[in-house]
């Protein structure tokens, strides 16, 4: 392991710790940006959130646009693995990067989980505790496990 790789991992751990346990509600977005994630203006990320993207060394697969509100304890999972790995090798061998995009003006409720390869479009609302496995259309309200459409934003 190279010294640069080690420094990046240490920096990432420090940034993630400061982002997950913020001093104020606005400092969380600041620290996630310092980790390298793309986070738009006027975005609020609640405490205890986790942006999981390959140990924070690859951060280009999670994009959060402007005026987004993310409640506490939300998990954005930007990586996965091949299901064949476990069956064939008994362990995870390959990591598969997926993209998560949260568009302008969306709300993500507390405790929600957003899985890889999902786009939450403009003005959409994700209910608390939802598990989002598919794209959420603009101005749609989704909730449940897995998340399903329950209404439209008026």
Write the layout of secondary structure elements.
Blueprint: H1 3-20, H2 27-35, E1 38-39, E2 44-45, E3 50-52, E4 62-64, E5 69-70, E6 75-77, E7 79-81, H3 83-89, E8 95-97, E9 100-102, E10 107-108, E11 113-114, E12 118-120, E13 125-126, E14 131-132, E15 140-143, E16 148-152
Parallel strand pairs: 1-4, 2-5, 3-6, 4-9, 5-10, 6-11, 9-12, 10-13, 11-14, 13-15
Antiparallel strand pairs: 7-8, 15-16
What does this structure look like?
This protein has 154 residues and is α/β, with parallel strands linked by helices. The protein has a single domain, classed as 3 Solenoid (UDP N-Acetylglucosamine Acyltransferase, domain 1), CATH 2.160.10.10. It contains 3 helices and 16 strands. The chain has a 6-stranded mixed β-sheet, with no helix packed on it. A hairpin with a 4-residue loop joins strand 15 and strand 16 (148-152). Helix 1 runs antiparallel to helix 2 (27-35). The mean pLDDT is 83.
Discrete helix count: 3
| Unreliable stretches covering 5 or more consecutive residues | none
Instruction: Using the coordinates above, name the CATH class.
Output: Mainly Beta
Name given to the CATH homologous superfamily? Hexapeptide repeat proteins
Note the gap between the termini.
53 Å
Give the number of domains: 1
* Widest beta sheet: strand line-up: 2-5-10-13-15-16
Q: What's the helix-strand series?
A: HHEEEEEEEHEEEEEEEEE
Strand-residue proportion: 25-35%
Helicity range of the residues? 10-25%
Q: Helix/strand/pairing class, anyone?
A: alpha/beta
Q: What is CATH's topology name?
A: UDP N-Acetylglucosamine Acyltransferase, domain 1
Shape: globular
- Compute the CA-based radius of gyration: 16 Å
Largest sheet: 6 strands, mixed
Q: For the residues shown, what is the average pLDDT?
A: 83
Please state the second-level CATH architecture: 3 Solenoid
By DSSP, the count of extended strands is 16
